[in-house]
């Protein structure tokens, strides 16, 4: 076989050193790419965190608005209850007035009936039994 000379060894050493330098460059580039990817992931995480905070704040605002609306509905319900009580009072007063009017009407019609009966009696006596 052939013998390995110093020049062959030097050439192999140079090739290995060249490949080693290229690998170092590629590793450095890959590390830079990984760092940039990590930075992007960190930025994305930060954006997600910011969005989560904004969403939480908006949900809190919506919850506060719902609570305000609920309070307003409770106030409106109380006002409706008061109005219903007033209507019930007015209905009771109408019933009382109706009872009074019915009593008055019966009394008035009774008096009118007595007067009409008396007048008919007088007219009947005059018509059927005239005085000579």
Automatic annotation (TrEMBL):
Keywords: Membrane, Transmembrane, Transmembrane helix
Transmembrane segments: 106-129
Top-rank taxon, per record: Bacteria
Keyword Membrane: yes
Protein name: DUF4164 domain-containing protein
Organism the protein comes from: Aphanothece hegewaldii CCALA 016
């Amino acid at each position: 076989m052939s013998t390995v000379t110093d020049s062959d060894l030097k050439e192999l050493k140079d090739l290995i050193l060249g490949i080693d330098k290229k690998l170092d460059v590629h590793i450095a580039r890959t590390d830079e790419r990984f760092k940039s990817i990590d930075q992007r992931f960190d930025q994305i995480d930060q954006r997600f965190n910011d969005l989560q905070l904004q969403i939480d704040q908006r949900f809190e605002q919506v919850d506060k608005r719902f609570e305000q609306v609920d309070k307003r509905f409770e106030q409106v319900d109380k006002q409706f209850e008061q109005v219903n009580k007033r209507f019930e009072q007015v209905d009771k007063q109408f019933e009382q007035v109706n009872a009074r009017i019915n009593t008055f009407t019966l009394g008035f019609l009774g008096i009118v009936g007595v007067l009409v009966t008396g007048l008919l009696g007088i007219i009947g006596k005059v018509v059927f039994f005239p005085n000579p």
